[in-house]
Design goal:
By secondary structure, the protein is mainly alpha-helical. It has helices at 4-21, 24-54, 58-85, 90-116, 121-149, 153-178, 183-201, 203-206, 211-218. It has one domain. It is built from nine helices and no strands.
């Protein structure tokens, strides 16, 4: 039996100590990482409950249930941060989403190791990078959309639903491909890495401030 809550306590304890000991900026980053690990734990409970309630097997749950639950759970801390603290710096929003995704992927990978062992190093490296990058890419999908839609109140609700649906679809396709064997699984692990490279190549254009913000920055003080 895999006691993921015990694993969570062991991983979260030093992060909690660090959050209490470091300065404001590192504290925020570590807090989001801890938040990502926490929602990963909660997502596991919720997905397991829904799978049992619907009678879904492990593969069906991984494709049809887990992506929906996990993407919603990863988004909730970001939504709370944006609504309550109203950060003006868009870089903080991007960093928050990335840190939550990294915390989520880290905890998920550790739980996978404890359940399946750590003997196949090459496979674990590929899976670690593939799964970690997938969660980051899903986070970036939501981040990119939010940065352009958040200021338009009438777009928020519909935009959030659309962005989450896109992230869920991407996540579900990834889970479906990596659940196979051979070339299909390898392609599944490579897709997030290729997606991340494309986002990095286009990041200057994607995250470029709107024209009015550029104009304001050029105005003399």
């Amino acid at each position: 039996m895999n006691y993921i809550e015990n694993i969570y306590v062991c991983l979260a304890a030093p992060i909690v100590i660090a959050v209490l000991a470091v300065g404001r900026n590192p504290r925020r980053a570590m807090g989001f990482i801890l938040g990502g690990m926490t929602v990963c734990l909660l997502s596991s409970y919720i997905s397991t409950f829904l799978a049992a309630a619907t009678g879904a097997d492990a593969e069906a749950a991984a494709i049809n249930i887990s992506p929906i639950v996990e993407e919603i759970m990863k988004f909730l801390p970001v939504l709370f941060y944006m609504v309550v603290f109203e950060p003006k710096d868009r870089g903080r929003v991007i960093a928050a989403i990335l840190m939550i995704a990294i915390g989520f992927a880290t905890f998920e990978n550790v739980c996978y190791l404890t359940q399946n062992g750590a003997s196949q190093l090459l496979f674990l490296v590929i899976r670690g990078f593939g799964t970690g990058t997938m969660h980051v890419v899903c986070g970036m999908i939501v981040a990119i959309g939010l940065l352009y839609m958040w200021e338009e109140r009438w777009l928020r609700a519909f935009g959030i639903i659309g962005l989450l649906s896109l992230a869920m679809t991407y996540h579900g396709v990834y889970n479906m491909m990596v659940s196979q064997t051979g070339t299909v699984a390898v392609a599944g692990y490579l897709i997030p890495m290729i997606s991340a490279l494309i986002i990095l190549a286009l990041k200057t254009r994607i995250f470029r401030p709107p024209a009015e913000e550029i104009a304001d920055m050029r105005k003399p003080d």
